[in-house]
Sequence to fold (324 residues):
Amino acid sequence: MLNINELLNFVNAELKEISFDQEPVKLYEPIKYSLDMGGKRIRPILCLMATQLFNGDVKNSLPPALALEVFHNFTLLHDDIMDNADVRRNQPAVHKKWNANTAILSGDAMLIKAYQFLSDCEDSVLPEIFALFNELAIGVCEGQQYDMDFEIRRDVTTNEYLEMIRLKTAILLAGSLKVGAILANAPKEDANNIYNFGLNIGLAFQLQDDYLDCFGDIKTFGKKIGGDIIANKKTFLLLSAWAKADKDETQELNKWISAEEFDADKKITAVKNLYTKLKVDELSKQKMEEYYSKAMDSLSNIDIHNNAKQELISFAKNLMHRSN
Fold:
């Protein structure tokens, strides 16, 4: 059995074996650039971990694992254009290094490449895998649309936000695990339990990402703290603050949200102080713990006891105590 670090090395080695040295260069070079940026490779690792949990062969799950990673990176190419993000993983975003049209077309090609990898699954499970993958893919698109809709709305609720991150982030983590389970011929109930484990870990993961963007340590978080505050991103923290604030606090919060000219550090400090005063930082932590507990309950419902299950437990714990 491979541990998490060994699976990471395995996935990275296989990704490097994919050849994009073909014509037209301007289509394939951005794909290689995107995949070479690195990353945690969480989705393919989860797929392979689930396969190991149910005593399957990780080699059989490698093509769909790669498909999940290529698909994820495809979404990042397009997300960066929509968000007008300059940087991805401390390097110029594809649409900045080349241009938006190149990033769109290379992203489209990545989506097709993902389906090519997916089609290498065994024939017996291919229809089920395709159906699940399609469900995940359209769900991610729906989540992204909600995220864009929220940018121009001031009445977004925390429940709407949680549904958005369920679609945009959590279902792909959950689906990655379920793909691995299906490929290992896991019983349906267990495949659903591993999906629910991933879904709740995914929700906790995104809530923690929002929390770290505001309250993380810049030395370990890897980027400037307060980016979501500067961008007026409607996170769980902001939406909870609006819901809990009194008249004066709402006025103070709205003053910073609507300000077109401001000192970035002053805005970050002022909004963080409001978050702390309203205790939405604590509320966010409680919500993370709630989803973490649900995830662990789903995992405990799988009556398997092996090293792979311990690796998943360790993965979940590390996710809840990460600093970046």
